[in-house]
Amino acid sequence: MDLFLWIIIGFIIIGIVILASMKKDMESKLAYITANMEVEESSTKATPIIWWIVSTTAWGIVSMILIVWWFHNHFG
Hints:
Layout: H1 3-35, H2 41-75
Helix pairs in contact: 1-2
């Protein structure tokens, strides 16, 4: 296997570990927000959740692009 494939695999595994470790914290923040909808502090607590969703989406898109790029270079 070439180095580029190992970099892709490492990127995907490290991303999964980081996202899984942050999941519980995001769930607790979401539970707090849904329980306290009237409090203005809820909007400030929502910002990390939004950034977590954006970063998860970006990580997924980059992972897919890297895999497709590797297949294109390796088999194309």
